[in-house]
Amino acid sequence: MIFLALLASIAAAGLALTMLFLTHGRPEDDRGGPRADMVRYFGCAAIAALLCGAMNVLETAGGGDTAAAIGNATNLVAVGLIWAGARRLNRRRAIGAVSTAAGAVLMLGFTFLIPLDDATLLKTAGLTVFGALSALELSRRPLGALSGARVMSWTLGVYAAYNLSRLIVVGVAGVGPLIGRGPVSAETTAAVSAVAIVLVSVSVVRLGRQLDDAPAPGTRAHDRGVLRRAAARMLATRQSVRATLVRVPEIDLIRAAHSTERADMILRAVSAALEDSLEDAACGMPGRDTVFAVAPAAPDTAELEREVRIAFARRMPEIDYADVPDLTFEHRLVADVDELSLLMDARRPRPRQEQRED
Predict the structure, then answer these.
(1) How many Å apart are CA 358 and CA 355, to the nearest integer?
(2) How far is Cα 68 from Cα 296, in angstroms, rounded to an integer?
(3) Mean pLDDT of all residues in the chain?
(4) Distance in angstroms (rounded) separating the CA atoms of residues 295 and 309
(5) For burial by CB atoms within 10 Å, which of 93, 101, 292, 332 has the most?
(6) Mean pLDDT over residues 48-71, rounded?
(7) Quick check: 227 pLDDT over 70?
(8) 6 Cβ partners below 8 Å, 6+ apart?
(9) What is the pLDDT of residues 243-258, one digit of tens each?
(10) How many CB atoms lie within 10 A of CB 343?
(11) 292 forms bridges with which residues in the sheet?
(12) What is the pLDDT of residue 353?
């Protein structure tokens, strides 16, 4: 019976993970926003649930304390990441993932230090807390206004209440009912978990259809979309467009010596300088520490670099920065949007290159 229930949990977790990927589809360059955050957090929760079920089966087959410890830790992660994801979607402070990771690490360690029955009770208490927190967070607006979140909130609320009832039974009658057969036994708990996973999976699909998949302005995903759409518009009337890439070689030093905010201000100043120097250009930062500009014109690149440096230097007093960092340029001719996407996907700094039109 326990094997059947645990296998049902694994099947439900696998179904949940599959449904999440089907909901999101294949990520494109300009995908992002709340739906992507949901898939990131809840997809990891589904993977944790899948691993938990596998470890529970291995423990039952004689896997020992290691399988039990990993199973207990991933069980907490599965529920805790739903709470963390809900906080993210509600645009609240990002403490959920950190708290979940801390709880999982403690659970992993305690499983080796205390008797297994006591570790199970500790895990049950953790599931009660994370389940209740998830239910409360999912009921908060703006997420709570969506029907998928409401169903998920009720599901996790009932799941937390069930785990609380197991703790109450242990407090009254000891651990005997958990070991034997009955409504709070291990078999029943595995079956309840499987049902909860299925209900959460269906709720996540409904929620994914209601969430916006447009990335927020200022994010890399948003800038990729802006640049792709601008390139497509320009390429409709010409064979190629010019992509200009600008980097600040000492940006890592600025970030270390000052702050990340200061480095971001300097990169935004680079983007503004490009916009001042190029007509009908789309600018953004689709990759780490690289500012892109897509423009239809074909100016003299040396003159363009000179104008960008002058415009950039003018902006330094505005952000209260005494020095004027050096800039490096790369110029490419792009014939289609996919070529631009490959260029934006590059993560490593490239040597200065220039491809001039004949």
Answers:
(1) 9
(2) 61
(3) 81
(4) 18
(5) 292
(6) 82
(7) yes
(8) 53, 56, 57, 60, 190
(9) 888 988 888 888 888 8
(10) 19
(11) 245, 284
(12) 39
What is the token pair recorded at 99? 């708290």
Q: Is 245 helix (H, G, I), strand (E, B) or coil?
A: strand
CA 100 to chain centre: 15
Buried residues in 133-142 as b, exposed as e (16+ CB within 10 A) = bbbbbbbbee
Q: What distance lies between CA 307 and its chain's CA centroid?
A: 38
65-97 burial code (b ≥16 CB/10 A, e <16): eebbbbbbbbbbbbbbbbbbbbbbbbeeeeebb
The alpha carbon dihedral of 141, 143, 149, 154 has a sign of negative
- Residue 142, preceding bond cis, omega within 30 degrees? yes
Look at the chain and count its residues.
358
Residue 204 has pLDDT above 90, yes or no: no
Q: Give the contacts of 315 (CB within 8 A, at least 6 positions apart).
A: 269, 272, 273
For residue 353, give both structure tokens: 């290159």
The pTM of the full predicted model, rounded to 2 decimals, is 0.64
355 in Cβ contact with 246 (< 8 Å): no
User: For 109-132, what is the mean pLDDT?
Assistant: 88
243 — phi, psi (to 5°)?
Answer: -105, 125
pLDDT tens-digit profile of 153-179?
A: 999 999 999 999 999 998 888 777 777
